[in-house]
């Protein structure tokens, strides 16, 4: 979820049986089992042992605002990071973020109580340089926590949790795949496989063709469940894993494309790395000392009264002078803002309704993105409830586990929260974050909280927990009715239609952002925020010199 199972930190380069270093700027880890995931429209179902998530004080001030450089609609991670990047820019120092809810952070929800600290939305992030830049600029460098890069990641296969290979030297020895399956993957990666079909391939089609059935069924299918909570037969390879897709396009095969990308990287001028940034070791994931909520709260505190909470956008229009007028329902009454540019970081289905008066074509395209439901279920067991074969020196160690849909369990995956980051559970207790639902199991919408906890507990007793262990402590169940946008076949075309229709209708300064644009991983949302901020700066600079 996150990204959900992003915390498990499975790298697509690992799952494609390539060494992580072989592909420049690899895709984000399958971390929080969903840490890359961002969610929308949450429904809090229960928090048996938890209080409501921590929220920053409302910075909204009833101060008249005449005109600003940019209004960012949506106070989630994407919107806040765009605003932070813009607020330090000479081209757009005057920025306002508006959020319909009473708190910032969007789908980031951290809960702390009785010695436990757990996430109910995204769970972690891949510590890429753009992500670390945002962390440092937000004043959180000293609060950053990173998972152990040597901790194993597991996939359930034939009733047993099997580690996935951490690097190329592990490939001959891991037992998740047969010798024949490994050979098929190796030959396919070299280019000995059927040619591309000439149409947009699903993830399933691409992987089965290039790497074989075993790689798909035992690695990529559960990976897709963890990152997108999606159906790989419908997800687009080009849209969801574009960097890997491009390797075949540019090099004739995955290996050929990798070598070509490395050559281009070596030829390109290398920019010096920001010396302020931490240097993570290996393939890992990150969070903060008091959970992910620290990031939006820190950015909001820095922006101060530029963040407006409980402001619900009711309409948007373009004025004769080329600027935009936005009308809001606020606790102080109806308020109008005038802005040179607007960035919509709200979910696509919300943006669709607001933009319909401006462009029916854009609204129609945005309404077609699908967000399946996902539930985050946090439970705790005593340490002695863990099966002995999964303990190392008496401890549960690892990032977590993924469950292929063919293995007879309903849960998508489980994150070992108390093993991944420090101070997440009391001594002697194990905290497990489980995700259930997704595109292949929308029926969770009809389940009660107790039924979801029972489903998770039943699955865990088949795999990780002793069958005769005591009942778990149910800390929280949070259902996200519309959780993660699916990057299905045709996704990029629909996105192009939406953006192109707005420009064609004369709304060049009205931009789209957020996870359905940049990617579902939390880290990709931050990287996408920098990209959108650069686009806004470019628009404002052109406006100045007209």
TrEMBL record:
Cofactor note: Binds 1 FAD per subunit.
Protein name: Protoporphyrinogen oxidase
InterPro entries: Amino_oxidase, FAD/NAD-bd_sf, Protoporphyrinogen_oxidase, Zeta_carotene_desat/Oxidored
Assigned keywords, A-Z: Chloroplast, FAD, Flavoprotein, Heme biosynthesis, Oxidoreductase, Plastid, Porphyrin biosynthesis, Transit peptide
Gene3D superfamilies to which the protein is assigned, alphabetical: FAD/NAD(P)-binding domain (3.50.50.60), protoporphyrinogen ix oxidase, domain 3 (1.10.3110.10), Protoporphyrinogen oxidase, mitochondrial, domain 2 (3.90.660.20)
UniProt region (Disordered), positions on chain: 264-285
Pathway: Porphyrin-containing compound metabolism; protoporphyrin-IX biosynthesis; protoporphyrin-IX from protoporphyrinogen-IX: step 1/1; Porphyrin-containing compound metabolism; chlorophyll biosynthesis
Family the entry assigns: Belongs to the protoporphyrinogen/coproporphyrinogen oxidase family. Protoporphyrinogen oxidase subfamily.
Enzyme class (EC, first level): oxidoreductase
EC number(s) on file: 1.3.3.4
Alphabetical list of SUPFAM superfamilies matching this protein: FAD-linked reductases, C-terminal domain (SSF54373), FAD/NAD(P)-binding domain (SSF51905)
Classification via NCBIfam families: proto_IX_ox
Domain Amine oxidase, first and last residues per copy: 77-531
Functional summary from the UniProt entry: Catalyzes the 6-electron oxidation of protoporphyrinogen-IX to form protoporphyrin-IX.
GO cellular component, as recorded: chloroplast thylakoid
Reactions mediated catalytically: protoporphyrinogen IX + 3 O2 = protoporphyrin IX + 3 H2O2
Cofactor(s) recorded in Swiss-Prot or TrEMBL: FAD
MF GO annotations: oxygen-dependent protoporphyrinogen oxidase activity
Top-rank taxon: Eukaryota
Residue ranges with Basic and acidic residues bias: 264-277
């Amino acid at each position: 979820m996150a990204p959900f199972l992003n915390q498990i930190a499975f790298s697509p380069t690992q799952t494609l049986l390539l060494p992580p270093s072989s592909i420049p700027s690899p895709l984000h880890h399958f971390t929080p089992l969903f840490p890359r995931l961002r969610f929308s429209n949450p429904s809090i179902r229960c928090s048996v042992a938890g209080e409501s998530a921590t929220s920053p004080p409302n910075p909204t001030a009833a101060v008249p605002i005449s005109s600003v450089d940019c209004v960012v609609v949506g106070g989630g991670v994407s919107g806040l990071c765009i605003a932070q990047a813009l607020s330090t820019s000479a081209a757009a120092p005057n920025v306002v973020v508006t959020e319909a809810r009473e708190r910032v952070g969007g789908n980031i929800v951290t809960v702390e109580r009785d010695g436990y600290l757990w996430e109910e939305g995204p769970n972690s992030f891949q510590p890429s340089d753009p992500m670390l830049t945002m962390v440092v600029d937000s004043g959180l460098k000293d609060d950053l926590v990173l998972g152990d890069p040597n901790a194993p990641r597991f996939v359930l296969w034939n009733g047993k949790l099997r580690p996935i290979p951490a690097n190329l030297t592990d490939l001959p020895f891991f037992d998740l795949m047969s010798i024949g399956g490994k050979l098929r993957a190796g030959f396919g990666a070299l280019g000995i496989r059927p040619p591309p079909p000439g149409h947009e391939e699903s993830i399933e089609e691409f992987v089965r063709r290039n790497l074989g059935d075993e790689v798909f069924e035992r690695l990529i299918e559960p990976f897709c469940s963890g990152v997108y909570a999606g159906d790989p037969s419908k997800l687009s390879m080009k849209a969801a894993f574009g960097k890997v897709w491009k390797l075949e396009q540019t090099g004739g095969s995955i290996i050929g494309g990798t070598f070509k990308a490395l050559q281009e990287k070596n030829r390109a001028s290398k920019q010096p790395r920001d010396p302020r940034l931490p240097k993570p070791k290996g393939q890992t994931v990150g969070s903060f000392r008091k959970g992910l909520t620290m990031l939006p709260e820190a950015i909001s505190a820095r922006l101060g009264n530029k963040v407006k909470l409980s402001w619900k956008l009711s309409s948007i229009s373009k004025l004769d002078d080329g600027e935009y007028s936005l009308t809001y329902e606020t606790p102080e009454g109806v308020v109008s803002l005038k802005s040179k540019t607007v960035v919509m970081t709200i979910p696509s289905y919300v943006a669709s309704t607001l933009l319909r008066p401006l462009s029916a074509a854009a609204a129609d395209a945005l309404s077609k993105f699908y967000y399946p439901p996902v539930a985050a279920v946090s439970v705790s067991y005593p340490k002695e409830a863990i099966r002995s074969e999964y303990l190392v020196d008496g401890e549960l160690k690892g990032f977590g586990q993924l469950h292929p849909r063919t293995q007879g369990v309903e849960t998508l995956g489980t994150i070992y929260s108390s093993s991944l980051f420090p101070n997440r559970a009391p001594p002697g207790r194990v905290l497990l974050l489980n995700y259930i639902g997704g595109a292949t199991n929308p029926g969770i919408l009809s389940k009660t909280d107790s039924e979801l906890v029972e489903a998770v507990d039943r699955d865990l007793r088949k795999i990780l927990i002793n069958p005769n262990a005591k009942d778990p402590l149910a800390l929280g169940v949070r259902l996200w009715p519309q959780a993660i946008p699916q990057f299905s076949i045709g996704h990029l075309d629909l996105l192009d239609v939406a953006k192109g229709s707005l420009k064609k209708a004369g709304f060049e300064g009205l931009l789209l952002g957020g996870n359905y644009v940049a990617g579902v991983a939390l880290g990709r949302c931050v990287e996408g925020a920098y990209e959108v901020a650069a686009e806004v700066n470019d628009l404002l600079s052109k406006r100045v010199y007209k």
